């Protein structure tokens, strides 16, 4: 359960929450698709949110945003309060085969974190680890697990990861990667004091991720088989 507090009251108000899931990709040509090393991934966004409209109705308050005084993340375009958000890149193995590229060659066009993930995926394939998880599956990279600071402490991030790969993403096989490193929340303007990447890695280990390698002093690469979440 999730609660908010109004500035003019000590009363805690329980939020009615829901999950919103969107995915998209981008191709320049239709109906013919040219698979090459510049092929973009599928982008998945998963948000745990609460309707501002329901809050207004429950509290009989039209100006609910001002009463919350910026403490919570309000998305004006969707009229929602965002509790947590996942952003995920998906790279289907079928597309990789059509491009005739390695994982690292495909992912290097994005950023350094994606390159690290691509190198590890190549290693998994070359050494036949995890019983060939890419044969009928995709490579998933969780780019960001963002939980609003006021809603932390009840394993919201790991619960949202489990929910996403159990109910929303339909692949039966594949690998999921993430990089455990402290990141400032995009859902809050408050300055944060970060814990160590080791503590963060232990947090993700609790939901099934395995520590692979320390990329630098603040980043730890982690992985899990997708069917661990089934």
UniProtKB/TrEMBL annotation:
Q: Which domain of life is it from?
A: Bacteria
Know the name of this protein?
N-acetyltransferase domain-containing protein
């Amino acid at each position: 359960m999730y609660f908010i507090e109004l500035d003019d009251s000590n009363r805690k108000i329980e939020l009615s929450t829901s999950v919103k899931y969107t995915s998209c990709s981008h191709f320049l040509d239709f109906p013919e698709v040219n698979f090459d090393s510049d092929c973009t991934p599928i982008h998945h966004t998963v948000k745990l949110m609460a309707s501002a409209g329901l809050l207004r109705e429950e509290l009989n308050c039209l100006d609910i945003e001002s009463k919350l005084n910026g403490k919570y993340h309000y998305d004006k375009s969707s009229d929602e309060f965002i509790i947590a958000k996942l952003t995920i890149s998906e790279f289907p193995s079928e597309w990789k085969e059509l491009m005739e590229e390695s994982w690292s060659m495909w992912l290097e066009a994005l950023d350094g974190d994606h390159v690290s993930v691509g190198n590890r995926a190549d290693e998994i394939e070359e050494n036949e680890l995890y019983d060939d998880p890419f044969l009928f599956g995709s490579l998933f990279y969780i780019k960001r697990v963002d939980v609003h600071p006021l809603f932390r402490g009840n394993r919201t991030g790991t619960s949202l990861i489990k929910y996403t790969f159990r109910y929303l993403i339909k692949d039966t096989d594949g690998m999921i990667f993430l990089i455990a490193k402290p990141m400032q929340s995009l859902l809050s303007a408050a300055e944060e004091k970060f814990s160590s990447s080791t503590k963060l890695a232990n947090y993700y280990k609790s939901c099934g991720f395995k520590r692979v390698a320390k990329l630098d002093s603040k980043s730890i690469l982690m992985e899990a088989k997708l069917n661990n979440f089934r």
